[in-house]
Amino acid sequence: LTIAIVIAVNFLVGGLGFLNGRFDVTEDKLYTLSNGTRNILDRLNPDEPVTIRYYVTSEDRVMPPVLKSHSRTVQDLILEFQKAAKGKVILEKLAPNPNTEDEDKAREDDIQGVPVNNEGDNVYLGLAIQCAKQKEVLPFLNPNEETALEYNIARAIQKVSKEKKTVVGVMSSMPIMGSPMFPFQRQQGQQPWVLIQRLRMDYEVREVQMSASSIDSDINVLVVVHPADITEQAEYAIDQYLMKGGQVLALVDPQCLVAQRVYSQQQNPMTGQPGGVINPTSDLPNLFKAWGVGYNKADIVADVNYRTQLMGRQTPVALRLPNDALNKQERVTADLQSLLFMMTGALEVSPKEGINASTLAYSSEASDLIDNTEAERLLREPVSTFNASGKKQALAVMLKGKFKTAFPNGKPKAPADAAKTEGGGAQDDANAPKTAATPAPAAPAAEAKKDEAKKEEEAKPAEPAKPTDGTILESQNAEGVVVLFADADMMYDAFAVQQDPMTGGLIAVDGNLPMFLNVVEILSGGGDLLAVRSRASTRRPFTKMDELRENVEKKFRPSLTQKQAEIDKIAQEMGPLKVKNGQLVVDPAQAKKIQDMQVKSQQLRKEVREIKKDQNKDIDFTENMITLLNVFGVPLLVVAIGLTLAIRRRVATAAI
To answer: Does the pTM of the predicted model rise above 0.85?
Structure first.
């Protein structure tokens, strides 16, 4: 009977999952899928399940401990994916150990092998996610990117299950889309910026020319990067795109270092001559005015609290914003740890009616606005005098709501049309109708009546004439979103990514690239992934132990500092006594003084050693107590509860 009960319970719990629940009591919910991930899994088509092939080397001889530990974290997570998908995700686990068929399958799936010894053995830790004919590969699951693990898997599942890609339009005065090769001139083409490469992994990326007079309606998100010397016609195109329900992400810059020091100094591959100069300042004057955004392209933010390195020196015009300077209420920046801004401007928002504004990132109060000349000087020289304004400067803002057009009078005239209009009117046109003869002067009474009627007409408030060229005057819905950054350099490769020493690949530094992708996801209507992009790591520091160790060291630090100061003082006094004019000291009085100092120095060093021994004893005692509490605390608690229940039961039984 006991054996039958055990088998039945195991079948119900393990086989059928009856009463097979669990509780995630970790602080950051490390083992709980986010709601965004569950939404993605819920939308999967049950007739076209997603297959996850998990490749992990199982041979201990070649598998490093750090990867083996990380592989268990990966397996726990994908099992949660399989469970939450309710049959719409199929999991296959393969062990591509050296010289096996599974290793050949891993190579066929483009899983990256990492060499581990001189014998040519590779270890594998990657995923191939496939739905029908679409496949997405995570070639190597780097332990350093554990916080992005759920996001990467959820993104891949969403990508392979989607039939049509979201279209992202990119407009820029810089060649961020890359440039082709010119074999005849032996010039190598430029690679697209990493942000473009990363966008192409998930979206269809389409270039929009700076001279565009309209923007395709099938573009879901428009990204504008450093729109230097933008024309009114291009601004009008952006404006009407927003009015039609489009979403806009714009990065302007008062002093774009990339435009100034990278692209304006390169050679033209067709001629071999220096390339054209790109204006380092950019603005959207008409749009900003309509949106209630104040921005002076001559002002640069200097911040002595958040300053970081640029061109080999600390400078207040290069800012590394900590988590405290980011808006924790907005999903775009809530989970980011830092952002890097280079020669950034400031945005001052007085939102128009129907528009809500929120600041995403801001400087500290120890900041002020300076001009371009002063900013350039701070790149070369240290800060000598600086007067903080005591005011935080907004560096990035998000606008939401119902927008009104920046061109209420209709489409602006092209420069050629404006010049033609200014050059002459109908009187200069040979085909224009001839002017009628000058009428005879009217009678005085009639003239007086006309003047009175004219005054009454002028007194009436003039109603703006509605444009007849099809201009849309306000957005078609109240869900328009515009995200603005006062810096374009922040998305350049040198400031957004760095090379991973383990794999040689590129990984994001700070939060610039994740933040950019967050914004695009929100604007494209795919905000489900935002909650899982920056999960907490399972590898947590022993902060409590560090705190206790610091408390112990703090107690002994004054004594150690005092003794060390005495030792240093004796060493300084002994220096001149040992050598005089290049000769060794032989004076008996001086020799006796040196000997006394040496004895005292040795005594002080001995006292320092004793203090450090006492300090280490206290630290070891603290660590041992913590260890004992962790090892025996829970069992003792269980025993205490058991004894309490047993005593209560005995008392109750005795009373009966």
So the answer is: no
